[in-house]
Amino acid sequence: MSEAVTDEAVPDETDPDGTVPDGAATRKTATPEAAARRPGRRQGRRREALVGLAFVAPMLVLFIVFRFGPTLGAAFLSLTDYRLSGEWQFIGAENYTRLFGDDLFWESLGVTAFYTAVYVPMTVLLALGTAVLLHRTIWLRGFFRGVFFLPYVTSIVLAAVIWKWIYEVDDGLLNAALGALSLGPVDFLGDESLVLPSIAATSAWKGFGYTMLILLAGLQSIPREVTEAATVDGASAWQRFRFVTLPMLRPVLFFVLVIEAIQAFQVFDAMYVMTAGGPVRASYSLVYFLYDSGFKYFDFGYASAVGLMLFLVVLVFSLIQRRLIGREVD
After folding, report:
1. Cis link prior to 197 (omega < 30° from 0)?
2. Which residue among 16, 20, 303, 312 sits deepest, i.e. has the most Cβ atoms within 10 Å of its Cβ?
3. Where are the alpha helices (DSSP H) in 167-299?
4. Phi, psi of 16 (to 5 degrees)
5. What is the pTM of this model?
6. Nearest one of 149, 152, 186 to 166, comparing CA atoms
């Protein structure tokens, strides 16, 4: 229902006889009845907001309890000497002092950083290339999109077992192909210089489908008129991709880079199944170090300190990416 209003002439624009000339500006003022309804309308909106908050409150409470509760608990646990028996003693920052002096921590951090440096570009480039091809493909696009996404919904343990057989020295599929070319055999999982790229390739095959779908959605959101205008101006396919597509895809690229980097820093399953951290701890990641500290040696306070350090490393790395890549997204 529209508010009842009255037209009031602007005093400066009235004639001496009190009449309003043609075309004079008028302003509308609310009647007392309309002004009285405004507080009631604001109260109605406030009531609707409270009702909506009441509906989401249970899920919000669960989110806070199960998301921030364990984080705060781990932060407190990292300041204690907590054992499997349930006995604990507050020791302050002793776990962190011990952690910074632990060579195994720095070694596992270096392994994780190198794995991230290999895995993230491999996955993003593979996903971007596939997304560009699917974006230009009309025939059976949905079929290929489903096929490429299928490994993502596969268990990482199953994928690791399959790729471990593919990498086998004696009867592996890849070495059989290399042997046919008189190039093999190659010990992909037993060579310290090849084990991390081999595991990264497995993880990239497993997870690039999700990133591909996000990048494909970003490509489809780019206005066709922009690329058509670049084509009319004489830009080649590479120039259109370099100077038109990539800049407009920057927000999506920033998102997938952060997501893939976080996932890379948390790598554990593939290394546990394929190499058990070997050879000579060449695939001993930071999460593997956390797992051994907590579930092999039952040093839960020390393991919590490792988890908090992993959180800080991922946070700093994400902020660096934000600084270098995401500063033009805003």
Report:
1. no
2. 303
3. 173-180, 195-220, 224-232, 237-240, 246-248, 250-265, 269-274, 286-291
4. -55, -30
5. 0.79
6. 186
